[in-house]
Design goal:
By secondary structure, the chain is an alpha+beta fold. The protein has one domain. The chain contains 2 helices and 3 strands, in the order βαββα. Strands 1-3-2 form a 3-stranded antiparallel sheet, covered by helices on one side. A hairpin with a 6-residue loop joins β2 (47-48) and β3 (55-57).
Length: 87
């Protein structure tokens, strides 16, 4: 990885995954978990920086873009990407 590789930083709303009696599942639906989203991001080319599950680095912007556009439909896409433009 390089210093200027694209990345996404995610601040998870853990309460959103614990809003019913079914632990760690969004709206109580099995399979709709934070772990599943992290598995998807890593499987799509993201590198989980220091295993903290908040910062994911990508080798190129296209891979990041493809990852974001392919997020599971059940996940509400409130992601904001910052692209560092170099002169």
């Amino acid at each position: 990885m390089e210093v200027d590789n694209p990345a996404i930083f995610i601040q998870w709303n853990n309460d959103g995954f614990n809003d019913t009696a079914v632990a760690d599942c969004r709206n109580g639906v099995p399979g709709q978990t934070l772990a599943e989203l992290i598995r998807y991001i890593v499987g799509s080319g993201g590198v989980n920086f220091h295993g903290l599950n908040t910062l994911f680095l990508f080798r190129e912007a296209l891979v990041l873009s493809q990852c974001q556009s392919g997020l599971p439909l059940w996940y509400e896409k409130f992601l904001l990407s910052f692209v560092n433009q170099h002169s």
